[in-house]
Amino acid sequence: MTPTKPRDVQIAEIGTDTTVLRSRTWERLKFEIEYARQKGTTANSYLIEADSIALIDPPGESFTDIFLEELGQHAYYQRLNYIILSHINPNRIATLKRLLEAAPYATIICSKPGVNTLRSVLANQSFDRPSPREDEAHDLGIEFGTDRILKVHVVRDEETLDLGNGHVLQFRFVPTPRHPDALCTFDRGTGILYTDKLFGSHVCDDAVFDEHWKTLADDRKYYFDCLYAAQSTQVEAILLKIAEFPTRIYAPAHGSIVRHSRSVLTLDYQSWCEQQQKKDLSVALLYTSAYGNTATLARAIEKGITQSGVNVRSIDCEFTEPEEITTAVQACDGFIIGS
């Protein structure tokens, strides 16, 4: 039996002042259906080192230790100004807590739907522990105060953040029922659009970019079917939003960075959404999920129904207006409720 490669963090430059840290596992990471092709995955985080320094999307707790060790080799924690969270989930919180102990003066950036979750989870977080490399911070002229408090900035749709050196970040709110707090972030300086879950795939390999994108076709379609087939209406709206950006590269949360097949993959997403809308039968899948367990079941149900040729509209009732729920139920051929 061939031994499995150990988990690691792959580092690569993807643009001016911009580095990707790809936390990699060569085995199936979780039991959710989206990982069922068992090709491993990457959790992609991005570091922009301009006049101000921003970290986009630290990975989940499966990679906490190796990620923080590698990040510490490439950036001073004490100079980290912003931690941008494209979406918030309990898995990512574990890494975030550890990161804030090392970089207690960084400001967290997230959307309004995500801030309540964030505050409730981190309300009792203590920042009394000394930050690693505090002596180095003093050598850099960084002085620590006595008030280490959680700093969160809730961004508005289309708001911008100037990091300096031409790196002006613009945020777009891109919610779906699965990720009602989702953000995309566009860097005007590099033309990179940080797409979070969009345009990803669960494949682990050594290729940072998508040079061999044709070999990823089946994995990309499977990923779309698992995450977005039941949310095609919202995805179509998102595609229109992000089309406004002069994007050169998609930087997703998982898989290879999309440089060579960006136009093709965008057209694929549009086509897959249209195919969902043309299906004769439709089902509304209504759920709420306080701890994520019901959402996991809902995604498995989505996948099964979609494979049978039925259009599924997934609705997280916690973040959906009653009128929209009523309209969806009236328009469908059947509905499923879970909580």
From TrEMBL:
Its cofactor is Fe cation. It comes from the Bacteria. Residues 283-339 form the Flavodoxin-like domain. Keywords: Electron transport, Oxidoreductase, Transport. PROSITE patterns: FLAVODOXIN (PS00201), FLAVODOXIN_LIKE (PS50902). In the N-terminal section; belongs to the zinc metallo-hydrolase group 3 family. This is Flavin oxidoreductase.
